[in-house]
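SEQUENCE, STRUCTURE TOKENS:
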Amino acid sequence: MGIEDDATGVHCRLDALLEERGMTLTRLSELVGVSIVNLSVLKNDRAKAIRFSTLTSICAALECGIGDLLELSSL
């Protein structure tokens, strides 16, 4: 599923960031306190929304900025 399938034009780079850091979705789930299922929805670009608290927790755990995690692509 890509940007073309998402009406918002927002792409989540969670998969790439996890790979770059050698971290599993399971470990991120433990660090952030969000279920693996919900993180998987985000990772696979199926999320329609994200709480700011979740966003900041993920960025803290991955030591990245919001712009590293989310990117806006042209439709």
Notes: The radius of gyration is 12 Å. The chain has one domain: 3-72.
